[in-house]
Each structure stands twice: as structure tokens, then as C-alpha cells.
Write a sequence for this structure.
């Protein structure tokens, strides 16, 4: 496979994640969509690194993305739990107390 | 090793402060009041002092090769370290007053605040896509948790959730942009990216796409239209001391890293072309932000929401600097480019001081049981409590850009730098001036409500809080508002030096 195929895979995954994030109303599914987007980025990073092995920053970056995604999920789930305790639901439509 | 600790002493001091606050909180007895906000304040003051000391010393020795690709210790980073740490110090005092008054003081607030400020400082030092990403996330994760700090309040948690979801989405866009830029150039160090782009060895389409995505991600962080939807909700929902921190530190750090990326990495002629690269994109963002920010701020009834829209408008004014820089760089006029960048840095500092003063006055006017959040609450405040009225008025006038305050100097230099570039930018400057004239309307409304209207029921009046921390914070913010406003000369020189060294 050439770089084009990997780039296509990464872009499709990113698109799926973005579509999921923008269309779903369940916070947990939105969190999963964000994870898909981050992993799509990882695919792209590692693929570019494979075809341009001048340094290994692409792979290193992928590890950092994985670590940061874990931290992000921790903070995100904590906020979702706080939200669930107050609203008894994880649907984003329930968050409507702040309006213009 | 010791050399590195000294060169990065502002960051190290903030980290040491976080560790000290964590330990002090863990080993203190429950219920015993201990003054963590003062510890935090001194950690930030130390960091600010460290940055100023390093700037005075002007050490330009090369950094250790393990650190050099990732972080720089150049004048711009040190200047913004001082601004961030100074703003952190003032917000630490505000938090000490606000959280204690409203009985939600917990030690972790200060730890998270220090660590978020650490992330912001990493961001202003970063010269590599990896450190940009890590710094940005360190800052953002801290700010997400601070926004949700009032976790029993539905508004606070809801605002934090919106911020978190949209922020993570924006981070993913930014990351994808970084991946494409890496694919286009094979490099991640900002200077090396620029070299690859200039030499023409880079893949043009990938580089353009990457630039667009990175610009979108950064525009989200600074709250530019159309990536601004989160900011009014978070500003309104979060505790006011958090709003102040968020409005100032996040915006300053995100704009600084944007300056560095745009100037160092994306300076190649095809990307920074005034008519086809990122400059027209940023100009669109600037115009949209000024328009939407100012018009939406007009119709708000909640003062925190109004300030959120006004901060969107301010992001628009600052982005005029980017356009001015790009035009002068394309014209080969380096002096005008440096002037535009330094005007942006000065604007950030003056915006920080004026916002802190306004948020501080809002905190001051309320106390346990009744916070001041709407224009209704502010009615007659200026006559009942003259000092609060004066502080709020000075802050509002400075945000509006009225001499002799910091806001005037910031706007003046920024618009002047855009005019100096040439006739091409005059329509944009006229638009920006008209937009700030619209802005004057809602800032003046704040003042009119305070002095010329009366509240209907006496019972609903908010009682101001009394706290030495708060008075100290207001005093510091007011000092900088007037210091930058009356004698901006040496701040201007520092900012120009920082822009030149970039």
C-alpha cells in the first residue's frame, strides 16, 4: 500500500468521527467519536512517518496523542458524571439552561 | 541541568508552587482555614519575577540539544510568561476572595489553576508541534475542570461540558492539521517546517489543508467567530474567578502560540500570501468576530455573557494584527511587520489587565447569597458603592479603548500598525474602528446603569464583599491599566524587542 491509501483511511476515519460528533446527541457517543478522530490522526502520523523516516517524530507524536487522549477521557468522563448526577441523563439536549 | 532550570525558572516555579499547594492542602486539618490563594499568588509572582529577571539578563546561549527543538526561551516567551504569571497572580487573589466568600474553597482549585497556567506557559515557549499540542492540552484540561468546579451547579457543569466537547473536537481538528503539515514537510519543528516550505520540497495541497485546519483549531481556542459558540455559555456558567482566568490566560496563550506558528512555521510565500494563503482566512475570522461579537454583546442582559461576546470582539481586533503582519511581510517591510506583532502582544497585555479589573469588580459587588450577574443587579451600584463603581468604570472604559487607559494604547498601536502597512488595509481598519464604536455602546450602558438608574426593590440589592485579597487584586489590575495607559513607552520597547527576536 502507498501513502495515498493510508491517508484515505485516516481521512475516512476522521470523517466518520466528525460526523458522529456533529450528529449524535449522546455525550458518550460523542466522546467515542472524538476518540475515533484522534486515532485517525494517529494512523496518518504513523503512515507519514513510515514513508518519510528522516526522524521518528510521527510515531512519537502518536504515543503522545494516545496518552493525552486518555487524560482527556478522564476529565471528560468526570464532567459527564457530574452532568448525569444533576440531569439524570447523558443527552446533550438536556443542557439547555444557558441561553441567549 | 541547572542551566535549564534557570532558563525555564518561570515554568519551574509554577510547578513547584503547584506541588507546594498540593502538599499544604493534603497535610492541613480539615476545616482549618489556610491561605492557599496566597501561596499560589507568591508562586505566580515568583514566576513573573523569574521571567523579568531572565529578560533583563538577556541570555541568548543555545539551549541543551534535548530541549532546544521543543522549547525556546526567547524574549517573546519571557514577556508572555510575565503576562500569564501576572494574570495568574491576580486571579489567584480573586479566587481567594470569591471562593471563600461563596464557601466553595477547596485546595485542588489552586493546584489545577497553577497546572493550567503551566500548560499556558509551555505553550508560549513551544517551537515544535509536539510541545504545542502537549501545552495546549495541559492548559485546556485544567481549564475544563476549573469550568466544572462548581459541580453542584447545573450551569457550571453544562458550560464545562459544552466547552469540553467542542474543545476536544477543535483539538482533533488541530491535530489533523498538524499531521497534514508533518506529511507535507516531514518536519515538526516550526523553523524546519518553514525551511521545507520555502525550499519548495513540501507538498503544497497538504500544506494548505494543514494550515487551514490548524487555523481553525487555534481560532476555536481564542474564541473567534464561527468557533465561538462555547464561550458565552462557559463564561456565564463558570464561577466568576474561573471566568476571569479563562478569559485572560487562555486567550493570551492561544494567541501567542498562534503568532509563533504563523510567523515562524507558516511564513512561506505561498501560505502567507495576503490574498490566497491564511491571511484572507484570518481576515474573514476577524471581520466575523468583530461583527458578531459586538452585535451580540449589545443585546445581552447578563454581564458575564456580555463580557464573553466582548472578548470575542477583542479577538477580532487582535486578528487585525495578523493581517497587517502578513501584508507587511509580503511587501518585504520587516519593521512594519514587527510593529504589528508587538502591537498584538501589547494589546494582549492591556486586554488582560482591563478584563481582570472588570471581573474583579463584578466579584467585589456580590457576596454570599447574591452575586452580581445582570444589568439589573448593577443598577445604582455606582452611587451606593462609589469605589466599586469607579473600578468597574475604569475597567469598562479600558475595554472600550478610552484614554488614558491600557485599552486605548492597545487599540491605538494595533490600528496604527495596520494603517502603516499601506492603503490596502484601510477599509479593514475603518471597519474595526466602527466595530469598537458599537462596542462603546454596551460598555457605556454598563456605566449608565451603574450611575443613572435605580433598582426597584431595595431588598434585591447585592451586598459587596469585604476581602483584602480582592482589594489587592483590584489594585494590581488598576495599576497595570493606568501604567500601560499613561506610560506605555518601555512596554512598547519590550514588545518590539520580542517581535524582532522572533
Amino acid at each position: 500500500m502507498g501513502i495515498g491509501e493510508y491517508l484515505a483511511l485516516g481521512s475516512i476515519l476522521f470523517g466518520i468521527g466528525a460526523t458522529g460528533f456533529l450528529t449524535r446527541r449522546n455525550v458518550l457517543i460523542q466522546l467515542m467519536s472524538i476518540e475515533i478522530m484522534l486515532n485517525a490522526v494517529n494512523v496518518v502520523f504513523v503512515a507519514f512517518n513510515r514513508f518519510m523516516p528522516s526522524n521518528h517524530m510521527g510515531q512519537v507524536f502518536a504515543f503522545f496523542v494516545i496518552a493525552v487522549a486518555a487524560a482527556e477521557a478522564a476529565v471528560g468522563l468526570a464532567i459527564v458524571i457530574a452532568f448525569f448526577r444533576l440531569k439524570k441523563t447523558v443527552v446533550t439536549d438536556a443542557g439547555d439552561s444557558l441561553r441567549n | 541541568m541547572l542551566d535549564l532550570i534557570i532558563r525555564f525558572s518561570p515554568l519551574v516555579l509554577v510547578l513547584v508552587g503547584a506541588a507546594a499547594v498540593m502538599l499544604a492542602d493534603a497535610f492541613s486539618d480539615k476545616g482549618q482555614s489556610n491561605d492557599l490563594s496566597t501561596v499560589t499568588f507568591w508562586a505566580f509572582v515568583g514566576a513573573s519575577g523569574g521571567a523579568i529577571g531572565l529578560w533583563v539578563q538577556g541570555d541568548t546561549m543555545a539551549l541543551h540539544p534535548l530541549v532546544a527543538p521543543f522549547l525556546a526561551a526567547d524574549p517573546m516567551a519571557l514577556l508572555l510568561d510575565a503576562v500569564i504569571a501576572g494574570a495568574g497572580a491576580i486571579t489567584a487573589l480573586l479566587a481567594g476572595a470569591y471562593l471563600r466568600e461563596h464557601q466553595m474553597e477547596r485546595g485542588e482549585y489552586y493546584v489545577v489553576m497553577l497546572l493550567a497556567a503551566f500548560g499556558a506557559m509551555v505553550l508560549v515557549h513551544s517551537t515544535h508541534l509536539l510541545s504545542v499540542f502537549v501545552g495546549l492540552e495541559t492548559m485546556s484540561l485544567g481549564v475544563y475542570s476549573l469550568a466544572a468546579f462548581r459541580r453542584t451547579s447545573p450551569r457550571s457543569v453544562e458550560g464545562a461540558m459544552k466547552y469540553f466537547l467542542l474543545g476536544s473536537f477543535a483539538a482533533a481538528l488541530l491535530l489533523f492539521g498538524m499531521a497534514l503539515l508533518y506529511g507535507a514537510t516531514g518536519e515538526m519543528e516550526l523553523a524546519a517546517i518553514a525551511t521545507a516550505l520555502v525550499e519548495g520540497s513540501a507538498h503544497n495541497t497538504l500544506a494548505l489543508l494543514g494550515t487551514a485546519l490548524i487555523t481553525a483549531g487555534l481560532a476555536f481556542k481564542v474564541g473567534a467567530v464561527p468557533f465561538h459558540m462555547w464561550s458565552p455559555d462557559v463564561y456565564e456558567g463558570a464561577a466568576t474567578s474561573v471566568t476571569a482566568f479563562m478569559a485572560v490566560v487562555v486567550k493570551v496563550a492561544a494567541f501567542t502560540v498562534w503568532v509563533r506558528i504563523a510567523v515562524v512555521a507558516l511564513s512561506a510565500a505561498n501560505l502567507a500570501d495576503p490574498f490566497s494563503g491564511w491571511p484572507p482566512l484570518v481576515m474573514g475570522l476577524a471581520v466575523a468576530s468583530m461583527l458578531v461579537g459586538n452585535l451580540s454583546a449589545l443585546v445581552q442582559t447578563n454581564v458575564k455573557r456580555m463580557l464573553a461576546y466582548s472578548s470575542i470582539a477583542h479577538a477580532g481586533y487582535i486578528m487585525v494584527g495578523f493581517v497587517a503582519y502578513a501584508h507587511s511581510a509580503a511587501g518585504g517591510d520587516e519593521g512594519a511587520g514587527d510593529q504589528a506583532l508587538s502591537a498584538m502582544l501589547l494589546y494582549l497585555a492591556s486586554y488582560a489587565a482591563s478584563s481582570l479589573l472588570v471581573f474583579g469588580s463584578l466579584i467585589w459587588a456580590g457576596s454570599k447569597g447574591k452575586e452580581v450577574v445582570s444589568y439589573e443587579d448593577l443598577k445604582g451600584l455606582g452611587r451606593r458603592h462609589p469605589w466599586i463603581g469607579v473600578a468597574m468604570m475604569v475597567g469598562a472604559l479600558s475595554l472600550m479603548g478610552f484614554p488614558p487607559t491600557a485599552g486605548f494604547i492597545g487599540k491605538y498601536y494595533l490600528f496604527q500598525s495596520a494603517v502603516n502597512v499601506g492603503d490596502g488595509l484601510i477599509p479593514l481598519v475603518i471597519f474595526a474602528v466602527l466595530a469598537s464604536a458599537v462596542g462603546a455602546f454596551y460598555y457605556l450602558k454598563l456605566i449608565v446603569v451603574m450611575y443613572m438608574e435605580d433598582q426597584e426593590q431595595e431588598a434585591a440589592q447585592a451586598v459587596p464583599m469585604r476581602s483584602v485579597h480582592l482589594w489587592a487584586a483590584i489594585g494590581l489590575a488598576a495599576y497595570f491599566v493606568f501604567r500601560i495607559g499613561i506610560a506605555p513607552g518601555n512596554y512598547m520597547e519590550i514588545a518590539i524587542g520580542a517581535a524582532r527576536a522572533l
The longest helix of chain B spans residues 154-185. Chain B touches chain A at residues 129-130, 133-134, 137, 141, 144-145, 148, 151-152, 154-155, 157-162, 164-165, 168-169, 171-172, 175-176, 178-180, 182-183, 186-188, 232-233, 236-237, 296, 299-300, 305 (CB under 8 Å). DSSP finds 21 helices and no strands in chain B. Chain B has a mean pLDDT of 92.
